[in-house]
Each structure stands twice: as C-alpha cells, then as structure tokens.
C-alpha cells in the first residue's frame, strides 16, 4: 500500500522460506540494502520520499495511529494466528494451503512442527495462557475499540487517510477475509463499520487484499 501510494516502482515477491529472511520473518525490503520489519520499512520509505508518509502528521494523529497500529499488529494479529493454527478444524486449511505441495512425509511432519512452534510462541506472548473464552473476550474489546473509533472517523488516526491506515486496514482484511470463517473473522464480520473502513482504504489506495 505504501509503495503504491508513493508511486514508487517495485517488484513484490512471496516466499515461505522465512529461514532466509533477515530477521526470520516477513516482510523485508531490498533497496540499496535490506530493511526488515514493516515499521522500519515505512520509516525508510518516509525518509526516501522526504517525509511524504510521516512529515505532515499532527502529534495527535501520531499518538492515535501508533496506539491502534500496536493493537492490530501486536494483539489482534496473534488472535488471528491462533484462530487458524490452533483451531483443530481450521488447521486442516493451513495444512492444505501451506504444506500440500511438500513431498510425503514432509507434508505430514512439517505442519505439526510449525503448529508446535506457533503454540509455544503464543504461550510466550501471553495470550496462549488464557482459555478460548477469555481470548474471545479480548477480541471483543479490540473490536469495540476499533468500532468506536471508526464510528465517528473515516480513518483510524483522523478524518484523512494516513500511514497508519495501511497497517490497520491490512490487518483487519487479513483477520476478516477467511474462508471458511475463523472464530475471529466470524466476530469481526458482524461489524459493518470495519468492512466499510477496509473497502474505503483499499479503494483510495488502489490495493486490495483479496482478488
């Protein structure tokens, strides 16, 4: 979204070989060197374009945008991951879509290893130590905060689109556009204001999370 918004030429590549990633996770940007992590990439792009992403923001926009970005990336993200990887029924979708191309017996072994690591990471985060009912209550509070903000504002930080909308709208789309539905997407898709927000940002930037 940021690259398109800034009208920069780029080539996008997708890989599951995260062992080759600079920090063991995606995304990373190759631009006269390697910049890994979304926030660092956005900071690099802001510097590269003389402040076109962050330079015109008010202190209030930065404060609100940063808070909701943290909610989306560091809390809602992990609930979304758990609703896929740690739900027995939905894990079958993960195995099919991520690992079916592997030769046997790897396509049986690797998903189980990945799931075990995901469960360990979720536990270390802290969310994995709560019951499903408690996790669903946490999700309710995340959703209520987002809905309250977007009921009175067209965008997350103010009434104009900012850099923070790229992150929040993308994360919401990822959490909501799941087939079949997860317990996270089922809850979030009850909120039309969230769907309207995603579509508004995607249409303004011209980048869509689903085909």
From TrEMBL:
The keyword Hydrolase does not apply. GO terms for molecular function: transferase activity. Pfam families: GST_N_4. Keywords: Transferase. GO terms for cellular component: cytoplasm. Residues 7-90 form the Thioredoxin-like fold domain. Signal peptide: none annotated. PANTHER family: FAILED AXON CONNECTIONS-RELATED (PTHR12289:SF41), METAXIN RELATED (PTHR12289). This is Glutathione S-transferase family protein. It comes from Pontixanthobacter gangjinensis.
């Amino acid at each position: 979204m940021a690259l398109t918004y800034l009208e920069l030429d780029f080539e996008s590549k997708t890989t599951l070989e995260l062992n080759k990633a600079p920090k063991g996770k995606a995304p990373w940007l190759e631009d006269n060197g390697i910049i890994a992590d979304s926030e660092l990439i956005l900071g690099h792009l802001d510097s590269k374009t003389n402040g076109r992403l962050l330079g015109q923001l008010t202190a209030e926009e930065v404060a609100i945008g940063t808070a909701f970005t943290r909610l989306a990336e560091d809390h809602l993200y992990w609930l979304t991951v758990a609703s896929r990887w740690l739900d027995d029924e939905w894990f079958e979708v993960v195995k099919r879509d991520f690992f079916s191309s592997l030769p046997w017996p790897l396509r049986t072994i690797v998903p189980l290893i990945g799931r075990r690591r995901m469960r360990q990471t979720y536990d270390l985060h802290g969310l994995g130590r709560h019951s499903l009912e408690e996790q669903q209550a946490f999700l309710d509070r995340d959703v209520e905060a987002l809905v309250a903000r977007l009921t009175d504002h067209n965008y997350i930080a103010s009434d104009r689109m900012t850099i923070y909308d790229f992150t929040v709208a993308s994360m919401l789309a990822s959490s909501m556009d799941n087939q079949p539905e997860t317990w996270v997407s089922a809850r979030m898709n009850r909120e039309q204001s969230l769907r309207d927000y995603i579509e508004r940002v995607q249409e303004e930037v011209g980048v869509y999370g689903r085909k």
